Amino acid sequence: MTTEIRVPQLPESVADATLVAWRKQPGEAASRDENLADLETDKVVLEVPAPAAGVVKEWKVQPGTTVKSGDLLAIFEEGAKGAEAPAPAAAAPAASAAAASAKAADPKLSPAVRRVVEETKVDPASVTGTGRDGRLTKADVISAASAPKAAAAPAAVAPSGPRAEQRVPMTRLRARIAERLVQAQHTAALLTTFNEVDLTAVTELRARHKDRFEKEHGVKLGFMSFFVKASIEALRKFPVMNAAVEGNDVIYHEFYDIGVAVSTDRGLVVPVLRNAENLGFAQIEKQIVEYGTRARAGSLALEDLQGGTFTITNGGVFGSLLSTPIVNAPQSAILGMHKIQERPVVVNGQIVVRPMMYLAVSYDHRIIDGREAVQFLVTIKDCLEDPGRMLLGL
Question: Known catalytic residue: 42?
Answer without folding.
Answer: no
